[in-house]
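Support request, please re-run this one:
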Amino acid sequence: MPNATFSPPDFDAFCGLEGLGLTAVGQRLEAGRAVLECRVTDPDQWCRHCGQLGVPRGTVARMIVHAPFGWRPTMLQVRVRRYRCVDCCTVWRQDISKAVAARGKLSRDAIYWTLKSVVIDRMSIARVAENVGTAWHTVNDTVLEAGSELLINDPHRFDGVRVIGVDEHVWSHTGRGSKYVNVIIDLTPIRDGTGPSRLLDMVPGRSKKVFKTWLQEQKPVFRDRIETVAMDGFTGFETAATEEIPQATAVMDPFHVVALAGDALDRCRQRIQQVTCGHRGRSGDPLYGIRRVLRTGVDLLTDRQCDRLSSVFAADEHAAVNATWGIYQRIVEAYRNPDRAAAKQQLAAVIRDLAGEVPPSLTEIITLGRTLKRRAEDVLAYFDRPGTSNGPTEAINGRLEHLRGTALGFRNLAHYIIRSLLDTGGFRPLLHPQMR
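Re-run finished. Output below.
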């Protein structure tokens, strides 16, 4: 920019010390870090008790972790002047609350820098601690406390939520204690096409009572605003939503409906495999060889795959697999139909057929039909509410798996919940304006 106006170099402005009420008077480069010697700009020499002018009584050095500069961890060695009142003998120090919280170890700028690194850059705590040159526990405690105070505990965080998704999530694989949590997702941005989904909360457990209790704890204005709840096939979620937010429409999303049909197809294939071959699937067995082809949509099959299916289905002993595969394909075809009204009619026809007379030998189809008949209203509600799906919920579950891998696992559920909210709670746009 040729017409840009430059001001004289200002080291305090460059290091972000002006907003902290500090000024740099010296610097020292040590092994692996830089140390800035600072003074407090406000003299603060009046007695807080009687208002008289205090007498200087030396200084105290305070070491504060600052945001890193020049690829080096940066420390602030602040010389804090002490004063003593001649009249009432009160002793006090200069106020440095602008720079650091009471008993805090990180400067205000360092706190925002660590939050930015974790929330926006998705760095691990270990990497952030290395960059600022302090202990892992110091950074972890700071991120959890500041993240909860500045972002998670925002009273307006639930404003505007009209569509939610609920699903279970496995947070621990150690086998000690409860390893499941319920995740509640805000799907309103997906429904409105304004942005990605975000994590609202995580609650230990995976029962109806857990979700019901969470809804009861929310404000009435939040519950009254909920229009739609996307969920899987677990009946407890539906019952809890019906009891606590009766005005909301429950939607069983396509992912889980197709998964139910796919599981029925797999069970049927495995059962016939045992009956015809007397063992589990092995290389060379006809049904085992087409296990993946069975899960592929008809419109995506190659000529070779179609020939393989025709060859296997030609055997009379594979008739049950052929029938179950036909139901699975009809369900997939209904969800792929771009015409929602026609798609709804297609899926409704499948549910009616499964609720009718089904040969007793097709046990998997009978079980699937009972489930779809019981949840028919929830299944078909998807076509009347476009954009309502638990797909974004599953995507956030994948993000949480990545977070757990980055952290090499979590042992503390409370810490995991806070870190999960910071990572997938949609706070990045809120944190960006606070970065300097």
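The first strand starts at residue 22 and ends at 30. The chain has 18 helices and ten strands.
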